[in-house]
Fold these 2 entries.
Entry 1:
Amino acid sequence: MAEAVVHVSSIAGSPLLDSAGERLGRIDDVVARLDHIDGLPPVIGLMARIGGRQMFVPAARIERLEPAGARTATTKLNLAQFERRPGEVLLRADVLDRSLIDVAAARLVTAREVELVQEDGTWWVAGIDPSLRARLWRLLPRRFRGHDSEHTQFVAWREMEPFVGHVPSSRLKLASRRIARLHPAQIADLVEAASHEEGEEILEAVAADKELEADVFEELDDEHQVEFLRERSDQEVASVLARMASDDVADLLLEIEQDRRLPILNLLPAAKQRKVKGLLGHNPSTAGGLMNPDFVSASAKATVGEALAGVRASELGPQQVSIVCAVDDAGALAGAVSLAELVRASEQRTIGDLLDAPIPAVAAEADLPEVARLMTDYNLTAMPVLDGDGVPVGIVAVDDVLELLLPEEWRRRAGIARS
């Protein structure tokens, strides 16, 4: 059979004919399997209404499939009543006009049309068209539709992840393999743009990677963080918070219902509890409230090589290791050195030798304007925060400052993740 292209909306509702051209019934839907890890999903048959019953017509029994209908390979069919099996989806009922994730573009799209292609005698799900043009095309009378082949917004199925929470086939799950290629902020955008049920499905898909799940929660806005934690138990919430940065945990705890804050805090690891409690003791808009208590420090007498070894051994994020705090014998801050300076310096030099142009520091009580002014004047991505004795207790990162300074309307909007 030559290569061909058909649309699900054209097939659904068209007649099912036998090999002699006699009408057997009406095609209600196209059945495909989405549990194939590699390649395109294959079409395994049709769901057709024959004699008032929904029957399954296997793909092997279909001789021709075209917009005008389908023709079977025989005049006599021994068909079984349709019964959905695990891994199967109905392309019209489960995919058409529903949201999917376009992983390549990191956005939600609506399948206004589903396209099938035939290769080597097998029909496959090739992709979807999310354009309104495809939706309007479907409104035309069937005899005028023909085949709209322009597909200027066609999205290949290999770049898609469909939501399947509404599909009765229990084995189907939203796969994380493609979503995991996205940045946590992009995944958070998708969650915020999706319905609550779709957002839960995305979070469930990334939950296999606990670190990624925590990173996504950090990127969600306050409203969505609370929305998706509200239905979880205290233990489940604590499990997520335990992997988040301490400053983000402190911020999120203040958004959770008051009667749940202490029980959840008490479920965190002891070290995390101490850090979070310390942060909660500061005004959120001061350096102490903005800072992250996790940072890299080294003796001012240590060599550059030793300081770099400490950076390599650290599991902190890029901004948290962008500076190294140098301390004297009493633990007070002697200065701070950027990672770039350390990399450029000889490994035999001491950190103290690099403190000629020190990075400024602020007291924990410093307000947001003072923090922002210093970071702007010195072009800093991070800055040490000191207690009353001059001991470094954390660092303020530029993203935490920007988060408070940016106008609400400039922040990530859910609409940009949906098309």
Note: The two ends are 36 Å apart (CA to CA).
Entry 2:
Amino acid sequence: MSVKNNQDSYSTMPPETAKRFKYWQTRVIITTMIGYAMFYFVRKNLSIAMPAMQADLGITKAELGIFLTLHGLVYGVSKFANGFIGDRVNARYFMVTGLVLAAFCNIAFGFSSAVLMFGIVWIMNGWFQGMGFPPCARLLTHWIPPKELATKMSVWNTSHSIGAGLVVIITGYVVSLGWRWCFFVPSAIALAGAAFLWFTLRDTPSSVGLPEITSDNKNHKEEGDSKSLEFKQFVRKKVFLNPYIWIIAIANFFVYTVRYAVLDWGPTLLSEWKGVSIHHAGWMVAGFEISGIIGMLLAGWATDKFFGGRGARVAVICMALAAFFIFLFWQIDASPALMAGILMAAGFSIYGPQALVGIAVANLATKRAAATAIGFTGLFGYASTIVSGWGLGMIADNLGWNYAIGVLIILGITGTLVFALAWKAKADGYDD
């Protein structure tokens, strides 16, 4: 039987083993969803705090944008570097360590008052945040067969929206106690989440006495020899010399620019440009995230059901819709309810590509180099903070939000065109 056929089915396992495998698969998916959502609690809490920090400390949008940009750039590099590590180490230890250190950075941020200290601590937080996704990528590609990855990883990807949505709601309330509580409260929740991960998460199937998804002897040898020169050559071929991974990675720059522009600047934009209270702005940004959950699930299901696992094709459609809804938000001066509805439609659209980028490159790189491939796309995704952070902050300071949103629409259209270049990409790289 071929490697791919073994990986696409549980049929080679005895019934009792298959039942136990599926139990652990579900447990790993749910546990890592909760754990990764906790990373967002100590990453996206800054957006609600920013208007109060401007008023209390006299910090400009451009300075806040620099925090966002430096954090994002360091996070992208960390996600890439830790992708190499994440493919080789115990995911449980790695993920818990990153979450604990990120929470401590947030506590330090909450006690700070100097702009320089804010920058240093938030950059450190960016590095530790990069320890969150690589272990998840390792686990998901070891526990989920390729033919199910788009659907099940889309379910997992809702952790982004769950974490980001919950933290803007929670901080939208606690900011009334002072902006520092936007860092103390999420940190406490994240530390509790780290304890939960420690006691519930495990590593790959073999760590709990279960067979790996493939029974091919060659692949078992490859797994055990991941530190060799051969592994580096494998990664070079599957990731760095794969033109479709490059195209999808570049497209990811535009996905994250649109997504983070709303997530980071949404509360400030809505309060300053649209006159929405910070409390209601938090709920509106949460609506953007909640609708993104539906968008991710539908995009993953459609990828497996109608597009044969070719996520780039679905991403083209979703990205075009995201640009369209941002255009509507830009042009229509409407009631808060209608604005919230348009933002939700944009969130529904942009989170499809956000989820599918990781799924597409994980399948193309195969489970053996999945964390590296996803880390590589993360370099481009978080480089977007140059535009979504500092860039939009500068434009808003000097020209106003009207121009900033216009730039965002152009970037959304460009991302659509880049995704279209990967239309012919295969569903996965297991046959190569």
Note: DSSP finds 18 helices and no strands in the chain.
